[in-house]
Structures are given as structure tokens and as C-alpha cells.
Amino acid sequence: MPEIRQLSPHVADMIAAGEVVERPASVVKELIENAADAGATVVSLEIRNGGMSYIRVTDNGCGMSPKDARVAFLRHATSKLRDARGLEAIGTLGFRGEALAAIAAVSRIEMLTREPGSPEGTRLVLEAGTVVEEAPAGCPDGTTIIVRDLFYNTPARLKFMKTDRAETGAVTAAALHFALSKPGASLRYIRDGQEEFHTPGDGQTASAVYTLLGRDTAAAMVKVDGSANNVKVTGFVCTPYAARGNRTMQLFFVNGRFVKSRVLQAALEQAYKNQLFTGKFPSCVLYIDLSLAAVDVNVHPAKTEVRFLREKEVFDAVYYSVLGALSNGGETAEVEISPGTKSTIGKPIVSPAPKAAATAPAAKPAATSGYTGRVSIPSGGFKTVKAGETNLFSRGGFARGGAVHDSGAAKYNAAPMPQPRIDSKAVPVERPKIDQTAIPMPKAEPAPVQQELAVPDPDWRIVGEALSTYIIVEKGDSIILIDKHAAHERVIFDRLMANKEPVMSQPLLAPFIITMQAEDSALILDNLELMAQYGFEVDAFGADSIAVRAVPTDVELGDAGSMLEMIAAEIRSNSAKPDSARDAILHTVACKAAIKAGKRSDPMEHKAVAEAVMSGRVRYCPHGRPVSVTMTKYELDRLFKRV
Ligand code: ADP
Ligand code: MG
Questions:
Q1: What is the mean pLDDT of the chain?
Q2: Residue 134 pLDDT level (bands cut at 50, 70, 90)
Q3: 513 by DSSP, 3-state: which?
Q4: Residue ranges with CB less than 5 Å from ion ligand 2
Q5: How far apart are CA 250 and CA 241, in angstroms?
Q6: How crowded is residue 558: how many other Cβ atoms within 10 Å of its Cβ?
Q7: What is the helix (H) or strand (E) element at residue 629, kind and residue range?
Q8: Residue of 98, 71, 72, 92 whose CA lies nearest to 17
Q9: For a pocket test of ligand 1, which of 37, 98, 257 has the largest count of ligand atoms closer than 8 A to its C-beta?
Q10: Residue 541 dihedral angles phi and psi, to the nearest 5°
Q11: Which protein residues touch ligand 1 with a CB less than 6 Å away?
Q12: Pocket test for ligand 1, best of 30, 75, 78 (most atoms within 8 A of CB)
């Protein structure tokens, strides 16, 4: 082995530069971050040829003295960090003092800088990290840095650069991330002589989102404003039907820094669970603000990753805030609350996912602990399950839960009336008869909580059904069209999710034999226990077939074969996701058990479906499609040219 020697500082710089400055976009990111750290409110960024030949960043920040201007280009030279303790709470975007040294090592740099109030500024020119010119200069307050011929002295790196278009794309993304992270700074971005965007810098995240992502994207987003565990979560998330085919629009900003984070991504996606089509991902612009000491930003050379001290708390804060926003559906009512008003805030945020809340006991709804700001609650108020409502949906063995049925009984006792369709399987047989005089009221049954929750007569009415598909509802000045299949599917799906008991099944007279691809039949046979839990009795039949012996009570026997195919196909396409088999079964059962579009269904079923939608409990079908569409009188009047 040759003798060990220490590398010259120049070579060491070039190696370090490789980590920080990967491509033009990394230079842009570092320079605009420096501008923000310098307190700039106006920043302009210009690039040519994807940034390979020219990058200019001009800011109106604090500038540098002539001495500092020189020192800034030394390695580990920074004004932002003084000692090791400072590392525990970093409030600036930069802190390592590496960026300028790294960029200078692999390019030709020209810098003009002037501190506000000083008589003149400084001009500095560097080549491959060495100062070649230095002189006083007349220039505006603030700093301009021009980077030319990136990687001119590192041909190995130059070879790896993509096309100008690809590099431009990465620069544009960096500019976008910056502009969203600092809505208080105006950013003008010019690419090859053309202005790409110019943000107002008015401090409003909404206007930054509007300017940068466009009107359509902004319109399909709902506001998030929650806080828990001293973690504040604000910004915007897309509605489920506006989800995208990839994750590039999942933008997270932690204490003003754009970051990639698995924890945040998981919390976001969990909040959309069962609301999205396969292969669709939610998009967001979310700002997560927490104590500087609770997050470590010093874990990645480009500072694009962070580590949270208490991951679970951050996860919960994001999950419940997003869930709350989605259940609001965008119609928000701002309410001022003081700490300790637990129940009112907790309910709407948790209610859309009782299952998730139940399985994560440590999880607290946003704003129940350490609440510090304003939260939005659904404008629909706190309507919850109407007494007896559950029965109306029961088309078989899915509706369980003694309390609700009991309260149903209590209600009928009070007001004898023709029984709505109540499936005998769903109701305990020893239920008291509907005759108040004949039976002395048993004391134990009244279920006072349920009665308290009962809502008054609805302020809407069913006008009818159209095309055997849509239920038409009138409410105030609006007409609401409900997709009866989609809405009912969601209701059944939620019920199945919430239910822990096994589902009733109906045996087939003769087993139904279905031949499937080996891969698919294996998926079914691997999940026999789960299938049984939801009412399917199936087993292997010969080499490549499956025998179906029983199906859930709610579905038609003739659907048995196609259901297994649907289940297998769905498990296969979602195999990477946890619970994919369970979700596949639930989706399929809900779909097959729901009232069908194109077939007439009875008025009781319409009423039950409409109630679920009008109460706000049901907004999207399990695949993420909306279940209702609203048309206002004004919109109709306009169509008829009345207004
Ligand atoms: P860091 O940002 O980690 O401190 P840099 O190498 O990016 O390291 O910058 C070094 C120092 O140069 C900064 O700490 C800051 O004092 C100064 N500096 C860099 N850019 C600017 C700017 N646009 N305006 C004022 N000062 C700047
Ligand atoms: Mg920096």
C-alpha cells in the first residue's frame, strides 16, 4: 500500500463540494437560502442553460462588509453558528458555512455586496475557489452572486449533467420550494431571458400557492389549520378526487425549510386511507412548525432531511390536522377556542376515522392537547349518529352494535309507527314489543346519550330519483344530486371497517368453482382467515381452482365468482400496502352490497343514503370519487338566464 498522506485543502474542498453541489439546482438552493437568511424581502433569480453557464441571485438583504465578503468563501466560515450548542436549535436555513466555499471550488464566481448604510460595496471575483479580483464597487444594498461555468474544472462531474431542460426543471423546483417556504419574500424567477414567475411576497401562503401552482390546483385544495403536541400544522391539502399519479406535489416545510420526510408522508397518506384510487397520491403544501430543539436539521449534506425528536407526536399532529381538514371539505367555520375545550374540537376531527382512533390509543386529536391557535371545525356542526339510523342501512348482517339498536327501540316505543325495514338478523330477537301500555318500560334501556345526539327533523327533503342512479335532494337554495351507489358503498365500507365481529354469511346450495390464474388463487388462499371473517367460505379445489361455499349475507349469490376475481386483482395491485387484503375484501363487499346504479331501489334506502350524505359523514366513495354534487338556485337561474 502506498504511504498515507493528507489531501491538500484544494482537493478536500473539491470532494466536499461534490456533496453539497450536485447540480445547478443545488447552487440555486444554497444561494436563495443565503438570501433568506440575510433577511431579504425581495430576491431575484436568473439562470441560463439550466444554470450550467449562468446563475444569478440578487437580494436586498443585510449584505457583507469587505472583510466578511472574503471570509464567506472559506470552508466552515459562517455567521450563523457559533458553537456546538447552537447546533441544537438551528433557526437559519444555512449553518455549516460550506455552501459558498463548495460552489466557488467548482465554478467562476462574481460577487457584489454592500451593507445598507455603508458608503460603498465590494466586488469579488473567484476562480476555482481562489480570489482573483477584489475591489470596492458601487452597488445597491444587498448581495448579488453570479456563478458561471459550473463544473468547468471537474470534467468528471460535468459528464453527469443531464440536458439543459432537466437541469432547468430541477432549478424551477428549487425556486418553487423556496417561494412556498418563504411567502413573505417576493421571488422573481427568470429562465433564459423569460420570466417564469414572480410571487407577491405578501406573507400569505394562499397567494403563494395560487401564483405557483395555478388556479385549478389551488381550487382543489382545502385549508389545514391544526395543532397538537406543540406542533403546528398549516397549509393546504388536495381533496381526494384531485389526487395525483405521483408524490412530487407533496411539499412539506418544517420550520420554514423544504424537506423530504417519510414520517410526514406517511401521516399525510394515512389521513387519506381508503379515499383514494390505487396509484393515486395526495398532494399538499404543509407547514409544520415546532420548537427548534425538537428537530435535528443536521442529518443530510443538502439539509433536505430532518429528524424529529418525537416522531409519533409529529405524525399525530399532521395526521389529525389533515383528517380534520378533509372532513371539513373546505367549508370551514373559524372558531376561537380556549385550551381545554376538548370534546367539541376532538369530535369532528376524529369522527371520520373511528377505527384509526381506536387502534391508536396514544394518538390524540389535533388541538386536544397543547392547543395554541385557531382550528377549523366542520360547518355542519356536531351532528352525529341519529338514533336508529344504523338500522336503515342494514341490508343484512353488517349493522351491529347493541347500543344503537336499543336506542332505535327506545325511539319506536315513544312513537309507534310502521316499522322501517329492519333486518331480523341485525336485531336482537328479544327486543321489546312496540306497545307502550302492554310492556312496562324496562329501566335499563333508554340510552340517554343517543337521545341527546338525536338531531331535529332534517332541513332537506328528497325530491326523487333520476335515471335510477341519482337521488335528488333539495336543501335551502340548493339541489344536491347524490350518486346512490357510491354513497351507499361508502356507508357499508365504513360500517365494515368499524365492525370487529364476524360478518354473517350465507351458504351456497352448491359450491361455486372458479378457475383463476395461479398467482391470484394463491392470494385468495393466503387470506382464508380474513376472508372467513368477512363472510366468505372458500377453499382450494384442485390445482388452479377455488371453491366458494358461502358469501356475505349482503351480496347476491350470483356475484360470488366475480367478487373473488375483484378481490384478487385488488390485492395484487396494492400488494405493497399494509392491510391490502383486508381493504380489497372490504372494497369488494361494499361495492357488491351497495344499492346499484341503474336499478331502482326503494325509498327507505334513498332516505338512509341521503341522511348519511347530508349529515356530512359521507363525502367520498372508498375509491375517492365524490358522492354528491351541489347546484345552487343561482347557478340554475343563470342557466335559464333569469339572472
Ligand atoms: P452558511 O449559510 O451555512 O452560513 P454559506 O457558505 O452559505 O454558509 O455562507 C457563508 C456566510 O456568508 C454566511 O454565514 C453569511 O454570513 C454570508 N452570506 C452568504 N450569502 C449571503 C447573502 N446573500 N447576504 C449576506 N450574507 C451572506
Ligand atoms: Mg448558506
A1: 77
A2: very high
A3: strand
A4: 34, 94, 99
A5: 15
A6: 9
A7: strand 628-632
A8: 98
A9: 37
A10: -140, 100
A11: 30, 34-35, 37-38, 59, 61-64, 72, 77-80, 94-101, 143
A12: 78
Long-range contacts of 366-369 (CB under 8 A, 24+ apart): 366/226, 366/227, 366/228, 366/233, 366/316, 366/317, 366/320, 366/321, 366/324, 367/226, 367/227, 367/228, 367/337, 368/228, 368/342, 369/228, 369/229
Rounded to 10°, the helix 164-181/24-37 angle is 20
- Asked if 152 and 127 touch (Cβ cutoff 8 Å), the reply is no
Instruction: Give the model confidence (pLDDT) of 425-466 as tens digits.
Output: 333 333 333 333 333 333 333 333 333 444 557 899 999 999
**Range list of H helices, 460-602:** 484-498, 518-525, 528-533, 560-573, 580-593
What pLDDT, on the 0 to 100 scale, is given for residue 303?
78
By the 8 A CB rule, do 48 and 56 touch? no
Query: For residue 410, what pLDDT is reported?
Result: 29
296, HSE (Cβ side, Cα atoms, 13 Å) = 10
Q: What is the pLDDT of residues 193-228, one digit of tens each?
A: 999 899 989 999 988 888 888 877 888 899 999 999
Distance between CA 415 and CA 24 in Å, rounded?
75
Mean pLDDT, residues 301-328 taken together? 90
CA 227 to chain centre: 15
H-only helix segments in 125-258: 155-159, 164-181, 205-213, 215-219
Please give the grid coordinates belonging to residue 251. 411539499
Q: Which three cell numbers stand for residue 259?
A: 424537506
What ligand 1 atom has the least distance to the C-alpha of 92? Answer: 2
Give me the sign of the Cα torsion angle 129, 130, 132, 133: positive
Task: Indicate the SS3 state at residue 461.
Answer: strand
**How far is the centre of ligand 1, averaged over its atoms, from the C-alpha of 384 (Å)?**
55
Residue bearing cell 448581495: 143
What integer is the mean pLDDT of 59-65? 95
How many residues can be counted in the chain?
643
Q: CA–CA separation, 439 vs 319, rounded Å?
A: 49
Report long-range pairs for 485-488 (Cβ below 8 Å, ≥24 apart): 485/594, 485/595, 485/596, 485/597, 486/621, 486/625, 486/626, 486/627, 487/609, 487/612, 487/613, 487/618, 487/621, 487/627, 487/628, 488/393, 488/594, 488/595, 488/605, 488/609
Would you state the cell numbers that stand for residue 315, as one nine-digit string?
405524525
Pocket-testing residue among 100, 182, 187, ligand 1, by greatest number of atoms within 8 A of Cβ: 100
Q: Averaged over 627-639, what is the pLDDT?
A: 93
Contacts with 53 (C-beta within 8 Å, 6 or more apart), sequence order: 148, 149, 150
CA of 97 to the centre of ligand 1 (A): 7
